[in-house]
Automatic annotation (TrEMBL):
Gene3D superfamilies: MetI-like. Part of the binding-protein-dependent transport system for glutamine; probably responsible for the translocation of the substrate across the membrane. It is found in: Cell inner membrane; Cell membrane. The keyword Transferase does not apply. This is Putative glutamine transport system permease protein GlnP. One of its GO terms (biological process) is amino acid transport. Residues 28-215 form the ABC transmembrane type-1 domain. The chain crosses the membrane at residues 30-52, 64-87, 195-215. Belongs to the binding-protein-dependent transport system permease family. HisMQ subfamily. Its main location: membrane. GO terms for cellular component: ATP-binding cassette (ABC) transporter complex. GO terms for molecular function: transmembrane transporter activity.
Length: 226
């Protein structure tokens, strides 16, 4: 077992002289970069899509509903492959940027539903009371609805971040070297299955449990402020 760990993680694994653990750390960096920026892009798209879906005009609601329906109805790996090999094939877009765009588009649809659900969870009577006091629809949303909806939205956004982190494991389908792909490269070069795959699994487990722990503490703080 010690020899397998040494051969997989602490010895050169190819003609390029790359050491396994360094390849995994580089893959981890790619995973975190894609997750972070995809979440930012998804948040922007999600906010915009939410307000489009809540519009009274059908021609504004329709593209938003179509976008959410298509994204939620197809696997993220299919979206990633189509975006990189078809939509962006004529452009000089690197794999990391393509992954950020693909996962950002995917996350935006789910974030939109999270925000919409958070807003609709606020009692409609508060909107009616605010409007009866003379507040405009914009002021009602800004001053009354959103401050309450945020308490429902933020924990769900944290969960979406964790889901997005795990979904990035399919970046290897377009040739990107993320954490999971790094483990596969080590496995293919050393013919050691257990060490690289379990190493990747443990790193994902550590990251998800760390974010979950932080999220649970944050949720407790929100509940204490009620």
């Amino acid at each position: 077992m010690i020899d397998a760990i040494n051969n997989s993680l602490f010895s050169p694994i190819g003609e390029d002289g790359m050491i396994g653990i360094l390849l995994i750390l580089n893959g981890l960096k790619v995973t975190l970069i894609v997750t972070f920026f995809a979440m930012l892009l998804g948040a922007v798209l999600g906010i915009g899509t939410t307000f489009m879906k809540m519009s009274s005009k059908w021609y504004i609601r329709f593209p938003a509903n179509l976008y959410v329906g298509v994204i939620r109805g197809t696997p993220v790996v299919v979206q990633l492959v189509i975006l990189y090999f078809i939509v962006l094939s004529a452009l000089d877009v690197d794999k990391i940027t393509a992954a950020i765009i693909a996962f950002g588009l995917n996350s935006g649809a789910y974030i939109s539903e999270i925000i919409r659900a958070g807003i609709q969870a606020v009692d409609k009577g508060q909107t009616e009371a605010a409007r009866s006091l003379g507040l405009s629809q914009t002021m009602t949303m800004k001053s009354i609805i959103l401050p309450q909806a945020i308490k429902n939205i933020l924990p769900a956004l944290g969960n979406e971040f964790i889901v997005l982190l795990k979904e990035t494991a399919v970046i290897g389908f377009i040739g990107g070297v993320d954490l999971m792909r790094a483990g596969e490269i080590i496995r293919s070069r050393t013919f050691e299955d257990s060490v690289p795959l379990f190493t990747c699994a443990l790193i994902y487990l550590f990251l998800t449990y760390s974010f979950t722990f932080v999220l649970s503490k944050f949720e407790k703080r929100l509940k204490q402020s009620d």
